[in-house]
Amino acid sequence: MEDLRQALQQRVFPETGINAYAVLDGASVPDLVSRLYELEPEHACLYSGELAPDMAEIAPYLVHLQPKTDFSDWVFKHGWGNHWGILAHSYSGLRALRQHFRGFLRVHDSKGQPLLFRYYDPRVMRTYLPTCNSQELQKVFGPVETYLVEGEDSNVLLCFQETAGSLKAQEVKLDEAVAVDA
Questions:
Q1: pLDDT tens for residues 141-175?
Q2: Per the confidence metrics, is the pTM higher than 0.90?
Q3: For residue 55, what are the domain limits?
Q4: Most buried of 23, 135, 154, 173, CB within 10 angstroms?
């Protein structure tokens, strides 16, 4: 399992200088809020305003991940394979990404009723992205260069990019990535 985490971290923290972020689901991550305050990574709640404590516990949070930090290590050790959230690469800062990700928290059904869109659940994201047309892809990607999402098998990392209005998907088998990269 340690080798899988190492292979995952190599993909999340490439040497290109791009920022790594996680959108974590407070409803899926035990004690997320206390971990954010205890370990102090740069983060922002995607919900706006003053939240009641119970809402703060289940809200989604955008977190700037840094290599070899206690928070990132905790996410990779306990969250990978447990659908805690999605990962993203971007050259933008936290504030711009928060605005981007807030832009599609709510969608509307066929009757115009607003619904919460839990795109930050990797099971949702990996199913949703392949259904998008080029306009939807441009909106969902915005300042995001790459989405990194756990596959159905936790040994699989799915990498999604938008190129000229089309979705490019790559599947990385983490156990093979360790053997190749070692």
A1: 999 999 999 999 999 999 999 999 999 999 999 98
A2: yes
A3: 2-181
A4: 23
